[in-house]
Amino acid sequence: MPGGIPMTHTTLPTAGMPDIASVAALDRAVRVAARTLARAGLAHAYGHCSARIDDAHFVVCAARPMGLIGVGETGTVVPIDGPLPEGVLGEVRLHQQIYRARPEIGAVARTMPSKTMSLSTLRRTPRALHGPGTYFAPGVPLWDDPQLIRSDEQAAAVVACMGTNAAVVMRGNGAVVAADTLEAMVALTWYLEDAARVDLDVLALEGKFAAAVLDDAQCRARATRSGRIIERMWEYLSAGDPELSGAHATCATHATHAANVPSTS
C-alpha cells in the first residue's frame, strides 16, 4: 500500500456474528467515511467513526488519524455491550453508548471541527441561521466539560446530554454526530461545522444587527432529505476517494442494519 503504511487487522465475525463478507463491505464504507471526514477538515490527528453491524456489534475505523487510513486498512468489530477490544481508542465507548441507547442510529462520528470548537469555548453551539443548522433543531446540546471521555459513566452522561439530537458539542473538545446511515452522518457533521461557521460570522456583527434565527416551524420545513440532499452532499465530500468508483460511489450501508432504521432528521 502507498507509503508502506502497516495495516491493522479487524476482529472478523465468528460463530453467532454476521458473515465476514457483510462486515468487510461495511468496513470499507467506514474507511471511506473516515477519509472523507478528514479531507473535509472535520478531523485531524484525533477522531473516529463507525457503523452499526447489527443489534450487538459495530465496526470502528482503525485507531489512527482518519486521513491516513489506507485502502484496505481494516477496523475493529466492537460489541455494543461489553469491554472495548484491545487497541480500540477509549472514546469509542461513546459510540457504544449511542448504539445502545438509540436503535435508530446506524453510524457515529467523533470529530474535531474547528469552528464548532471555537464556538463551544463561548459555551455556545450553532444556531439555526441557515439551512444546515436546521437539522439540529431545537438546538445542539452542549456537554460543558473539556475533559476527554475515559469511562463508561462519562460516555453515558454525554449521550444522555445528547438525547435524541443528531449531535452533541463538547466544550473545547469537538463533537459527536449520529445518524441512520454513514452518508447522513458525514453530511450532518459537515452541516454542524457550517452552522458554526455562519454563527461565528454573525456573532461579530450582532452588536449592530439582530440575527434572523429560524423558528421551529421553519426548521421542520427546511430540515428535509428530499431532492437527494444527503446523497448530493455525500457525493461532493467523498469524491475522489480511492475506494469509490462507479457502482461503489455510494456507501454500502444499504446492506446493513442502517438501511432499516428511520431518518434522524
Class by alpha and beta content: alpha+beta
Residues in β-strands, percent: 5-15%
Q: How many β-strands, per DSSP? A: 7
Strand order in the sheet with the most strands = 3-2-1-4-7-6-5
Architecture (CATH level 2) name: 3-Layer(aba) Sandwich
Q: What is the H/E order?
A: HEEEHEHEHEEHHH
Number of domains: 1
Outline, from the CA principal axes?
globular
Number of helices: 7
Radius of gyration, CA atoms, in whole angstroms: 18 Å
Say which CATH homologous superfamily is assigned: Class II aldolase/adducin N-terminal domain
Mean of all residue-level pLDDT scores:
88
CATH class group: Alpha Beta
Give the helix proportion (percent range).
25-40%
At CATH level 3, the topology is L-fuculose-1-phosphate Aldolase
Low-confidence region ranges: 1-15, 251-265
Query: What's the story with the biggest beta sheet?
Result: 7 strands, mixed
Instruction: Give the N-terminus to C-terminus distance in angstroms.
Output: 38 Å
InterPro entries: Aldolase_class_II_sugar_metab (IPR050197), Aldolase_II/adducin_N (IPR001303), Aldolase_II/adducin_N_sf (IPR036409)
Protein name: Aldolase
GO cellular component, one term: cytosol
GO biological process, one term: pentose catabolic process
